[in-house]
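Each field is set out underneath.
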Amino acid sequence: MPSSLFEKVLIPTDFSKYASKVVECAAEIPGVKEVVLLNVVSMDPLARVWDPVAEVKDAEKRLMETGKTLKAPGIEVKVKAVSVLEGEVASAIEKVAEEEKVQLVVMGARGKSLIESVLLGSVSRNVLRFGNTNLLIMRYKAVEGAEGMEKFCARIFAKVLFSTDFSEPAGAAPSFLSAIDGIGEIVLLHVVHKGETQQEIDSNLAESKRKVEEISKKISSGGRKISSRVGMGHPVEVIRNVAKEEDASLVAMSSQGAEAIKRGHIGSTAYDVANSLDRTVLILRRSQIAMYFV
């Protein structure tokens, strides 16, 4: 296991204000030592002439300027620009993530979209659905007011809500989270959403409480505060409500649970949570978590 779980991170940027905020916050990711800034140049469908070589060079210059905003000692910044055909941006991001062997991809929820109601842009959505690398999707509505960017950045990992369905794919995620030194507090949550009779519901609730408390004891170490909760109802709605009640700075989930969608690399609940929550979400990929516990 590396000394830090997120030593090397990839930050794709389209130079939008949301992407710029991600770069500003990168130094607050626990244990980060190297940041790869990436811009994917794609062909404008309305353009008659396209010079990808010139655009890549221009993007590299802009990335160098963007990297200067990451003012943190001890963090190495690398820039990379690649060109792709229209619609292949998410694939290019994952390819670079694999080539650079990063442990985390960090993205803003939205890019250049002018539609304020869109919670997750198309590129972020495709990286979420088809990527293989741990993914941190950051949202900024909380910082567009008076609180300021500095306060938001400082508490990305302050209080993490982790939702588990007790499945085998999600099994190693709590231990992975507890190994991240920068996390201040972890709240473990399980949502009971099945039960035909009151007796069956009560039994499921009692068993879920026992399991969550068991996990809490297992990962409790280093004086970190760990608590557990059990909810009942639609998983996405319960996760959203508990995140608000707990004032969680981040919601973490395993990419796949007991009921994974057939297409893509992410379960339906994790996908819906990341696509609809109004706060930062961390998706832990099963394949990446497993390598740390071999």
Q: What stands out?
A: The radius of gyration is 19 Å. Confidence is low (pLDDT under 50) at residues 111-119, 142-151. The CA atoms of residues 207 and 246 lie 23 Å apart.
